[in-house]
Amino acid sequence: MTAVEFQGVSKSYAIYDAPGDRLKELLSFNRLKRHRDFWALHDLSFEVKRGETFCIVGENGSGKSTMLQMIAGILPATSGTLAVNGRVSALLELGAGFNQEFTGRDNVYLNGSILGLTTRQIDERYQDIENFAEIGDFINQPVKTYSSGMVVRLAFAVAINVDPEILLVDEALAVGDIYFRQRCMRKVHELRARGVTILFVSHAVSDVKAIGDRALWLDHGRLREIGEPDAVISRYLAAMTEKDSTYLRARVVTDAPRRRSGPVRAPEIVETIPNIDHRFGDGRAEILGIAVLDEQGGRLPMLEPNSRIVVRISVRAKADLALPMVGFMLRNQLGMDFSGTNSAREGYELAAMQPGDIATVDFHVDLPELYPASFSFSPAIADGPLSGYTMCDWIDNAVALQMSRQENEIYGYMHLPCRVEVNARLGAESNAPPREKHVG
């Protein structure tokens, strides 16, 4: 059985040029139309399975919030059918459903009642809600005195403690501090394990990749793509990059480099690309190959902690590039962007390139102790400064290597270089070097 099902759903808003036009239209004997229709959603058809974490991405104004409001029962569909099966708890706009004059405690009981809980049921959950919100004595103060972060804390605490079968989250976690966001994400994972259906709207693509079972990309109210989060996010980011590149090309005109007699060719060139999950860019340059090597130039079968590797990327220009920039993104096995860099970020300005020029860029990377997992390298070449470049070619997950296991335990994602001092004096008070105890 599905939790949410859309069948040909569209949503239209009436837009009036002047406030009085609404009244004139209402009182008109011939029902003269004085508004224009704005279609926020166009013919959407999809379903969300029970227990699924379903993520929705798209630009601002693409209809994401409208979709969640329809699922929550706030907005009706203009056409099509929408079915929702289960108790819905929604965390949409800041303070939505809160009475600003009521205290936080009063709003907990108000929201619980709206969601169908009895006073006794709310009593049983109240302490858990107060403990999770962590707003202290403000729980007994009017909500109008709260900061936006405090409102989110209380709203999220209520939403997750009313035993929802379907939880709607619309960008609310972006307001909270890092400590609260981490607690919320842990709670989301807990709800997933309990089989709660979650519809999650976010611009944080790393969160979408980390928790999503499937993702839907909305583009101006239309379903552009739906499927595995990695694939959907890759195509979504590619489209956003191309849109930004088109915008920059329209605004920025760079001087063409002086012509040379012939193309420049690097002395050593990598011409193999082991894997291509997705590729995008404006095509003015291309990745010829990528390899992960040791310092002697040998290909690495596996990554070793506390070692130095060389990420070698060869590129070829197919048009004039005034400010070429080569780089790569390192991703973990969840598809999250773990770390990345590029030639400009490292302070190296590549020479302008003309059609046919080939360059090989080596990144000498000191690997820390990373948890044993698979890591992929996604190479890219762009043109322009860091503040406003255009993407020429990007290849998702071109090379994947496994990090070997270590004798020492890795807590979290990586181990930071660290030393331990006991009973030491810090700063100006210390005249003698401290006695150190090295670990590892």
Question: How much strand content do the residues show?
Answer: 25-35%
Strand numbers in spatial order across the main sheet: 5-6-7-3-8-9
- Give the C-alpha Rg: 27 Å
> Which blocks of ≥5 consecutive residues have pLDDT under 50?
251-256
Sheet bearing the most strands, described? 6 strands, mixed
**Average pLDDT for all residues:** 85
Given the structure, what is the number of helices?
8
Reading the helices and strands in chain order gives EHEEHEEHHHEHEHEEHEEEEEEEEEEEEE
Number of strands: 22
Structural class: alpha+beta
- CATH class wording of the domain at 264-402: Mainly Beta
CATH architectural label of the domain at 264-402: Distorted Sandwich
Measured distance between first and last alpha carbons: 53 Å
**What would the CATH topology of the domain at 264-402 be?**
Coagulation Factor XIII, Chain A, domain 1
The named CATH superfamily of the domain at 264-402: abc- transporter (atp binding component) like domain
Label the overall shape: globular
Helix content, binned percent: 10-25%
List descriptors:
Coagulation Factor XIII, Chain A, domain 1; 440 residues; 22 strands; alpha+beta
